[in-house]
Amino acid sequence: MDPHYYTGCRSVILMHFIRYRIKDGNVTYQCRFIRSEAYKKNWEAKRIVFNEFGTQAVPDPCHNLLKRLTTFFNPERFLTDNSNISIYPFQDEIYSISETVYAHKINATTLECEERKDIRDIIPLVVHHSSHPHVAEDGTVYTSALSVGLLGTTHHIVCFNKPENGEKSMFDTARIVASVPAPWPLNPSYMHTFGISDNYFVMIQQPFSVSITGLVTALVVNRPTSSALRWYEKEQTIITLINRTTDQKEDFYTSSFFYLHIINQFEITDEYLVIDVCCYKNPDFVNCMFTENLLNAQMNPCFAKMARNKPQRFIVPLTKFKKQSFNKETQSSSGNLIHLDNSLCEAYLQRDGRIILSPEDLCGLSCETPQIYYKKYSGKPYRYFYAIGADVATENPGLIIKVDTVEKDCKTWCEKNCYPSEPIFFPRPNAQEEDDGVLMSSLLWGEEQWNKIGLIILDAKSLKELGRAEFTTPSPAPKCLHGWFIPD
Question: Where would you tag: which of 53, 61, 212, 374 has the fewest CB atoms within 10 A of its CB?
Fold first, then answer.
């Protein structure tokens, strides 16, 4: 199997931490390998000894089939600990995380890995947690996780509180606060992220799943993790809401789609919950990211189509959560359950009690790695989000996009042969408006400028450039995927 963009081993792009520091009008740039156990063991063996997302390990000539089977009962021997997707604060500590059971504590000054955490030390049955936790205003962290038991698989919401009573770190406080059995027990939905509003947890269970039997097979015959992914196009996507107070759970249904990122989610009084998502028609985008497909992209007429998505809005009527009785016969004949001005979203109650949702598009551009004014508007009514372009067929595919979700229009920034990373919003001191601040994005250049990297700062209102810093590196500069702004 070819190495994959998400792998972070043979494709070393995601094995780095990148740090820009802005102080006294100057900008410095640092880049460092993640010193994970997988990295160290691969380096020592001079070969890949862990199966990664899209890269298979080089077989150990001393291991026969029986040896590989016994390895399955010693996860340390085959579970990679590469935490190569995102960076999040846990109180005053910074951790790098990905979709494994591990997280690495990072020194924000030196970028050294100081400690490795394993969520199984607190919650033993967990085999995966999300790459995108949510950080509440008080510093509490929530993430989604998956556990495997005798009766199948279960999705969880895990909470990390501020440590007290002698606990050393937030990881020691991990506890499950909500659980949802997977609708397909041996094929749990791949869940890169989840949502949280004032009163609800939001889980989007897409029919892009991880086959448990496929994972076992991958170990036995030495295949990468990606070989266990399955797409069930005829299944519907299930949007599950969990009341954070009562634990009441309700499922809502829509046509199948693939997603990686939820833009935001928020409640409108006690009548509706709005969920904005970057939606793909199918998961072909994942296949686009294999190295061979990237190298041959210009010779594949279907490549651009596979990478396109739509930022879409779903509105969930909260009727089922109301205390009064819910008359299915009456409601099923009442038409669209969404009664909001300037909304094209639909929700229809079926006679079997299911509510079917139909979304509306938020803009005409493909968007990825969406960001908002997170600290103030995460889980709250908001207007703007920022993203990078996901359409590689445009004249300038390296776009930074600002979307107005009220007017359903957008602004863009681009520079020829330049490719930005996820734009991170930081507000102006004492800002009164949602978009009063700046966007920060790491830049790469194509063609012959492979060793050039930079940081650009844009006015968040107009997307006009306010300043930039550029650096020349001694080797190819790695591309950023996700980041976090940490004030000094």
Answer: 61
The answer to whether residues 102 and 126 touch, using CB atoms and an 8 Å cutoff, is: no
241 to each of 10, 174, 249, 326, 433, how far by Cα in Å?
Answer: 39, 22, 6, 17, 30
The Cα 357–Cα 163 span in angstroms is 40
Asked, for residue 372, whether it belongs to a domain, the answer is yes
Quick one: which H or E segment has residue 220?
helix 212-221
Asked whether residue 132 falls in the same domain as residue 78, the answer is yes
Q: How far is CA 463 from the centre of its chain?
A: 25
Prediction pTM value:
0.89
55, pLDDT greater than 60: no
Judge whether 309 and 278 are in contact, CB under 8 Å: yes
Note the pLDDT of residue 4: 39
Q: Do 330 and 431 have their domain in common?
A: no
Shared domain for 304 and 166, answered yes or no, is yes
Residue 297's domain spans which residues? 12-367
Task: Report the distance separating Cα 94 and Cα 257, nearest Å.
Answer: 33
At 238-250, the pLDDT tens digits run: 999 999 999 999 9
Compute the average pLDDT of residues 198-224: 87
Q: Is 269 helix (H, G, I), strand (E, B) or coil?
A: coil
Q: Which residue has the higher pLDDT, 45 or 102?
A: 102
Separation of alpha carbons 408 and 291, rounded Å: 35
Residue recorded with tokens 């995108």:
132
Whether 286 and 404 share a structural domain: no
Burial code (b: 16+ CB inside 10 Å, e: under 16) for 203-226 equals bbbbbbbbbbebbeebbeebbbbb
Q: Which of 348, 367, 386 finishes a domain? A: 367
- Dihedrals φ, ψ of 42, to 5°? -60, -45
Q: Does residue 426 carry a pLDDT above 90?
A: yes
Tell me which amino acid residue 262 is. I
Report the pLDDT value the prediction gives residue 1, as an integer from 0 to 100: 36
Is 156 known to sit in a ligand binding site?
Answer: no
Question: What is the longest distance spanned by two Cα atoms in the chain?
Answer: 69
Helix (H, G, I), strand (E, B) or coil at 47: coil
Pair of tokens at residue 474: 């001694």
**250 CB-near residues (< 8 Å, 6+ apart):** 240, 241, 320, 321
Query: Is 128 one of the annotated binding-site residues?
Result: no
From 325, 349, 367, give the residue that closes a domain: 367
4 labeled binding residue: no
The answer to whether 388 touches 422, Cβ cutoff 8 Å, is yes
Q: In the structure encoding, which two tokens stand for residue 162, read together?
A: 């501020």
Does one domain contain both 363 and 373? no
The response to whether 482 counts as a known ligand-binding position is yes
354-358-363 Cα angle (round to 5)? 155
Query: What is the C-alpha to C-alpha distance for residues 434 and 181, in angstroms, rounded to an integer?
Result: 38
308-334 core/surface letters (b: 16 or more CB in 10 A; e: else): bbbbbbbbbbbbbbeeeeeeeeebbee
C-alpha to C-alpha distance for 479 and 274, rounded to whole angstroms: 32
